[in-house]
Amino acid sequence: MKIGRNTTQIKRIEIAQWVTANEWDYNGATKKFAVSYGQGSAWVKKFKQGGPETLQDRRGKDKFLTDEEKQVLRIKELEARNTYCFKAFLMK
User: Which residues form the Insertion element IS150 protein InsJ-like helix-turn-helix domain (predicted)?
Assistant: First the structure.
């Protein structure tokens, strides 16, 4: 099993463009860019379907929340706290 590499969106775009420019040479891309055959073909497929925007890394939480999303999270937090306090009160 190979150790994973960090690739940026720019590097993924470069790999996808190189593969398409070199007559779909996935094996050449694996040697040149040190990525797996499957990962390279997945990036090319995404690039063909949706362009460069589809190759961005979208893992994890969004960094910025809208005011509406913050309010919804606050309401859920208060409801959970209210339920906890109500159950604690019933136990006494």
Answer: 11-63
Cα 38 to Cα 41, 42, 71, 82, 91, distances in angstroms: 5, 6, 42, 49, 56
Phi, psi of 71 (to 5 degrees): -65, -40
pLDDT tens for each residue of the chain, 92 residues long: 456 668 888 899 999 999 988 888 999 999 999 999 999 999 999 988 988 888 888 887 666 778 898 899 899 999 998 988 988 888 87
Locate the domains of the chain by residue range: 1-60, 64-92
**Cβ contacts of 85 within 8 Å, gap of 6 or more:** none
